[in-house]
Automatic annotation (TrEMBL):
Species per Swiss-Prot/TrEMBL record: Popillia japonica
Protein name in the entry: 7tm Odorant receptor
Keyword annotations: Cell membrane, Membrane, Olfaction, Receptor, Sensory transduction, Transducer, Transmembrane, Transmembrane helix
Transmembrane segments: 54-77, 97-115, 177-197, 209-229
Assigned GO CC terms: plasma membrane
GO BP, sorted A to Z: signal transduction
Length: 246
């Protein structure tokens, strides 16, 4: 859990210092060029963002389940002074009401951190999903160019401008995410190994075992979130849609 906390604060610090870059990215995404102009474009963007919302709900539910299972395991354990995360405190936590206060302090504190962490990850993934939606719209527009009249020429010009703006947006996002994603990849690998090691030392279907399984799923989701969307951007860009234009 400590590695997850460190990972969170590193990303939070990076995003805080990159606040100006993030504002520029969001300002760039608000350009009229990125607004859907017809029903087909709106449908493409809606479908892309719907998938992002499903992933967000799954990720948030999994992370909250992890905290709930850890709290439940500590609550029902035979040890009367068990705490969810077992942090060290410079005072005695075995007496009441200190124990109850510390117990809920840990649960609420970690829960708020988890919600904030998920929000950070999903917000960045949302920008990536937006870019994927724009690439899908661009590819669809190029695919539907089948004439050489004035309307087709204007469509091509809009496609070129849209491509240039998408490329600028991707470049800015890549500059902002380079270091946070490096830290997340490094710590994520260590966290996954630690979670599997701890899972091997407890009964698989026990409360602790289920909490480690949920934690493992949450970490896999976190690592896959940005990598999957990043791979989607690369895959969409590599499509040879331009060669289907007549």
């Amino acid at each position: 859990m400590m590695l997850s906390v460190v990972n969170y604060f590193v990303k939070l610090t990076c995003y805080t210092f990159c606040g100006g870059k993030l504002k520029n990215i969001l300002k760039e995404a608000e350009k009229d060029m990125f607004h859907p102009t017809d029903a087909k474009s709106k449908e493409i963007m809606t479908r892309t963002m719907r998938i992002w919302r499903i992933i967000f709900r799954f990720y948030m539910t999994t992370c909250i389940s992890v905290v709930s299972l850890w709290a439940a395991c500590a609550f029902i354990t035979n040890n009367d002074i068990a705490l969810p995360f077992g942090y060290w405190y410079p005072f005695d936590v075995s007496s009441s009401p200190v124990y109850e206060i510390v117990f809920f302090f840990e649960v609420i504190g970690i829960l708020l951190m988890v919600i904030s962490h998920v929000t950070l990850d999903v917000s960045v993934a949302g920008i990536m999903a937006f870019i994927i939606g724009q690439i899908n719209i661009l590819n669809d527009n190029l695919r539907n160019i089948n004439s050489k009249d004035e309307i087709a020429v204007n469509t091509q010009i809009r496609c070129f401008i849209l491509h240039r703006n998408i490329k600028r947006l991707v470049t800015k996002l890549n500059e902002m995410l380079m270091f946070p994603m490096f830290i997340q990849s490094t710590m994520g690998a260590a966290i996954l190994c630690t979670a599997m090691y701890k899972l091997s030392k407890v009964p698989f279907l026990s409360g602790q075992g289920l909490s480690y399984i949920a934690y493992y799923v949450a970490m896999i989701t976190q690592l896959s979130l940005h990598f999957w969307y990043g791979n989607e951007v690369i895959a969409k860009v590599r499509l040879n849609i331009i060669y289907s234009v007549e």
